[in-house]
Amino acid sequence: MRDYHKQVIRRVLDLSVDKYGAYSLDFATKKASVVRVRNEVAFGDHYQIDFSAMILENETVRAKTHQIRFPIFDETLGLRQLIIHKSDLEKFRSLKTLDEFISLRAGQGEKWQDIGIYNDAGIEVIESINYESLFPMLAQKRFDYLPLGIIEADAALNNEKQFLDTLQIVDNVYVYYPIPFYLNVTKRYTGLVNRINYGVKKFEESGEMKAMFQSYFKQQFSSLDPSKSLVFVVRNPELSKSDNEHIIAKVMNSYFTKKSNLFYLPSQKFDGTNLGLMPDTPLQTNLSAD
Q1: Cα dihedral angle (133, 138, 143, 148), rounded to 10 degrees?
Q2: CA–CA gap between residue 33 and residue 115 (Å, rounded)
Q3: SS3 for 17-37, per residue?
Q4: pLDDT digits (tens, 9 = 90+) for 67-89
Q5: Which residues contact 90 (CB under 8 A, 6 or more apart)?
Q6: What pTM was estimated for this model as a whole?
Q7: What domains lie within the chain, and their CATH numbers?
Q8: Rounded to the nearest 10 degrees, how much is the dihedral formed by the CA atoms of 154, 160, 161, 163?
Q9: 227 secondary structure, DSSP code
Q10: I need a labelling partner for 40 at 20 to 30 A (CA). Which of 14, 55, 271, 285 fits?
């Protein structure tokens, strides 16, 4: 993921050379907490640019940071594959209703931003004190599934070799919710902000951004079979209703077809308005044909 971020920001800066000239780019080599990095970028002393999948909450940091909506993952950050206990495979393969799915418990790291999304949909979340503990907890059936992004799930499981005989990814069952992605730039240097805006605009409008994403993550999406996919769609309560509808429609039309079975979960924030669908009703409209 970090290598992909590097490629993206280099290309954005390359595309700005025609107007702003040559540039120098260095990457941080020391690990730092998310809070520290956000603060550093805001003040611009050591870091000036950063990526994030969250809106800046700290008022001081937000006031000093120029945040650009930057969909370098083609809005698929929230497309989750489910890592499960192998003994539960048939249970997941036979899912047919929202009630069946909502009765299952998701595993998440402590204070992960996704927790609020699952809770808003009525899904019970079991939290782990850290990421590493999630796999032994799942192996012990402390929860039913660990949802990880499609671009990371396979590698994440293969890194936990001691659990490969116990855990697996369930084919063709997904959870999706919109997670916007952002590029954060310090406001301290107006010229840098203008340059980044210029490069990002060219990168996105030329189609290069989507092409780079598809090329870089081609293998991760190779197993996705729209004709066999069962997708449980969850709305993000941190976004507006219209943003949810727009992003969800974009992803469903781009990656799934009329043969896909899509179920929308109710939302506490949006009064259970299910985007016009009744619970347990497969979505078979507003999708591109095969």
Answers
A1: 80
A2: 20
A3: HHHHCCCCCCCCCCCCCHHHH
A4: 999 999 999 999 999 999 999 99
A5: none
A6: 0.90
A7: 2-74+179-219 (3.40.190.10)
A8: -100
A9: G
A10: 14
